[in-house]
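May I ask for an example protein's residues together with how it folds?

___
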Amino acid sequence: MLHAIGKLAINLYLEKIDCEYALEETPSREALHLAEIAAFGLTSRKAGYELLKHWQFEPDVWQPIRQQKRPMYASTHVLSTAILTLSLWAVDNLSSFDFEAKLPMATRWAYKELNFNPDERAGLIDEIRFEFNDRQNLFSMLI
C-alpha cells in the first residue's frame, strides 16, 4: 500500500512551492516516471523508497519499491518484489483485462516466483474484482 508514497511526497512538495504539474495525464506508469524525471530529476518510486528508508521502515517494505524498475534482477526481498510486481499488473488490468494480451516479462517473472499459473490470470483478475467490490461495499456502509 505504500508503493506510491513518493507521489504524495512530490505532490506535497509542489503544493509547498505553489506549483501545478499535471502528471496524472500521462498514459502509462513508465511514461509517468519519464515525466517525473524530466520535471524533478527523480521518480516518485525513488522518492518513495528513499522516504520509507529515511523513516526507518524495514527493508522488506522499501526494497521492493526500489527494485520495481527491474524486478527480475532483485537480489533481496524477491517474494515481496514479485508480489508488488504482480499487484501493479493487476491494478493496470482490473478495468479492462485482455486474456489474449501478452504478459510483460516482469509479470511473467512474478508469476513464476510466486508459483502461480499464468494461464489462471483471468481467474485471478476476477477474484481481485470480487474482493475490491466487496471492500468498496463495506466502505460505503461506513460513510
Notes: The mean pLDDT is 85. Residues 70-143 form one domain. The two ends are 22 Å apart (CA to CA). The helical segments are 5-16, 29-40, 44-54, 59-66, 78-93, 105-113, 121-142.
